[in-house]
Amino acid sequence: MMQNPQILAALQERLDGLNGSPSGYMESLPKVVKRRVNALKNLQVKCAHIEAKFYEEVHELERKYAALYQPLFDKRSDIVKAAYEPTDEECEWKADEEEELTDEMKEKAKLEEEKKDEEKEDPKGIPEFWLTVFKNVDLLSDMLQEHDEPILKHLQDIKVKFSDPGQPMSFTLEFHFEPNDFFTNTVLVKTYKMRSEPDENDPFSFDGPEIMCCTGCTIEWTKGKNVTLKTIKKKQKHKGRGTVRTVTKTVPNDSFFNFFTPPEGKRESDEDTEAVLAADFEIGHFIRERIVPRAVLYFTGEAIEDDDDDYDEEGEEADDEVRLFRTLWSTDV
């Protein structure tokens, strides 16, 4: 995955572009001024430690408000999987002024909709809710393969769980599935462990919590249903006799479900692993911060339009980073 020099060069160029270059003015300063600059740097180290505490408290706030959000998310899940049928009052939605229709047009549209409903079977809940969300988001859609889609139709909910008070900072993504023919797990999990503490050897590099490692889970695949592996046939020629035989070999296969088998190791282990973990964390963070809280808006496409509005000319640069993440994720690299 990480042996392609072009990918590594692109990643390094992206990281290098975040840093400026010294002007040389510092070297020209008198010793007494440099001494005062050292005092400023010591103040900056203290700022970094305060900032680390700030992020720890932000994590505590996230945990607190996650408990307030969860009943609403649980009800969303119940509606999606047809465990709860919302009332007429809960389903009433006031359209934007420009979308409002005359009474006659409303009545006509209602009759047409009722006629269509009579012709169709009544589906349960909201079919393919999470699959549609994933397909609507560029960062996730390119992780999906055609063979993943039948499985993700069984995805009923995604939940975010934060570490308990007093425990090291972390969050866990839980993917809840209804019983299916592909694996026996009802929940697939991915945990990200983080640290909010300046490095003693390089305190100025602190820029908020960083991922230390992430762990996935073992998927108990039904025999013959593991989409993360594929079987290929290769011809081998005997060096001495010249005879040819066909060998069957199992190799990794591109799949969204590789997400649950992250690379082993920690951020400090080596540059290659760090790059893969950084890309993986970007995806996990996006699911936690954007997808789970605003799922219905990604389902309808409204959140995608809002995301586009947030970008200006720098959006093209962000797209390059997304493409890099996708490339890192491919088993063909």
Automatic annotation (TrEMBL):
GO terms for biological process: nucleosome assembly. Residues 90-102 have a biased composition (Acidic residues). Transmembrane segments: none annotated. It is found in: Nucleus. One of its GO terms (cellular component) is nucleus. Residues 90-122 are annotated as: Disordered. It holds the Pfam family NAP. Residues 103-122 have a biased composition (Basic and acidic residues). Keywords: Nucleus. The keyword rRNA-binding does not apply. PANTHER family: TESTIS-SPECIFIC Y-ENCODED PROTEIN. Belongs to the nucleosome assembly protein (NAP) family. This is Nucleosome assembly protein 1-like 1. It comes from Echeneis naucrates (Live sharksucker). The gene is nap1l1.
